[in-house]
Design a protein that fits this description.
The chain is an alpha/beta fold. Helix content is 33%, strand content 23%. Pfam families: OCD_Mu_crystall.
């Protein structure tokens, strides 16, 4: 773990610098790198402190803290989810995060995480699909074409070899936006008029809608044998996207059951409905895809370890680069016991 400097300055990555860092690395390379960091941390899952995110719910959205530690570093993310924000010209999701040294308790990184969360969410989806999707998958249906859709599409292309994206959103303008953004990525993009049209011939079905309601984006009769479902829109109590009949026919894989049972698609099911933790598949302790007619479902709600991995990655990548500046965030008196004296001397200078 990198300890703080003698002046106790904290590296800060702003939105502008995060965008510069992404373009410096390349979006698809960064998605692959993030997936590798997340996979490495999932392989040491049992070392981490784990707790469901601390959530403050309101009628219009949720504000959450997502903390974890591996014993050497501590990280947390602040994130909100307010679906109504789009109609007011605001982001549905905003976030920032902090990484700290466990030995001293000093923060060693403060960074924007709105863009970084979009990247880590997509990287996690593609990492899961690498283990759970049918071999040779080439087509993904992207249902919900909002802020996450391009990142999901590019991650599946970079990590799983997807070459065709079939888009659907109830708002045609969102589909037009996504199609335009993906136009020069090498993906074949098909705009669809209905969700039924979007899933035709798709091996991976990704649902990512924002409305805070128990919706049915995919009905039971829409989902045939052999597909992988990447369900990322259901991420808080009272917000789901899939008909319960789909869940009864699927082998379900989750990040952290105590959180997913409250926030994910499986909140519709009994508390003992069987699920497999994704880290067990990655380490070989449990089976992932086992047959050509199997329906696999990654019920993804996002978990703190994924954010921790993203924070580790950014910390490593900004070293010796101009993509950050240092914040005078920590009091640094000459005598650690004399904060008051430091304050008084500042008034005299």
């Amino acid at each position: 773990m990198t300890t703080p400097s003698a002046k106790a300055l904290v590296p800060f990555v702003s939105v502008d610098n995060m965008m510069r860092l992404i373009h410096h690395i390349g979006i698809q390379d960064m998605l692959r790198d993030l997936a590798s960091y997340i996979e490495a941390d999932f392989k040491r899952w049992e070392l981490f402190d784990k707790t469901p995110r601390v959530a403050s719910h309101s009628d219009v959205g949720v504000i959450e803290l997502m903390p974890t530690s591996d014993g050497e570093a501590y990280g947390f993310k602040y994130v909100n989810g307010h679906p109504k924000n789009t109609s007011e010209g605001l982001q549905t999701v905003t976030a920032f995060g902090l990484l700290a040294d466990v030995y001293t308790g000093y923060p060693v990184l403060l960074t924007e995480m709105t863009i970084l969360t979009a990247l880590r969410t997509a990287a996690t989806s593609a990492m899961a699909a690498k283990y759970l999707a049918p071999k040779g998958s080439s087509t993904m249906a992207m249902i919900g074409n909002g802020a996450q859709s391009e990142f999901q599409s590019l991650a599946m292309q970079a990590i799983c070899g997807i070459d065709t994206i079939r888009l659907y959103d109830k708002d045609p303008a969102a589909t037009d936006k996504c199609a335009a953004n993906l136009a020069h990525t090498g993906l074949t993009v098909v705009k669809c008029a209905t969700p039924e049209e979007a899933i035709e011939g798709a091996h991976i079905l990704t649902t990512c809608t924002a409305d805070k309601q128990n919706a049915t984006i995919l009905t039971d009769n829409m989902v045939g044998a052999g597909v992988h479902i990447n369900a990322i829109g259901g991420d808080c109590p009272g917000k789901t996207e899939l008909a319960s009949g789909i869940l009864t026919r699927s082998d379900i894989f989750v990040e952290y059951p105590p959180q997913t049972r409250v926030e994910g698609e499986i909140q519709q099911m009994s508390p003992d409905h069987p699920v497999t933790e994704l880290w067990e598949v990655i380490t070989g302790a449990a089976q992932g895809r086992s047959g050509s007619r199997q329906i696999t479902l990654f019920d993804s709600v996002g978990f703190a370890i994924e954010d921790f991995s993203a924070l580790r990655y950014v910390r490593d990548k900004i070293k010796d680069t101009p993509f950050h500046y240092d914040l005078d965030l920590l009091a640094d008196p000459d005598d650690p016991r004399d904060v008051f004296g430091m304050l008084m001397r500042a008034d005299q200078s």
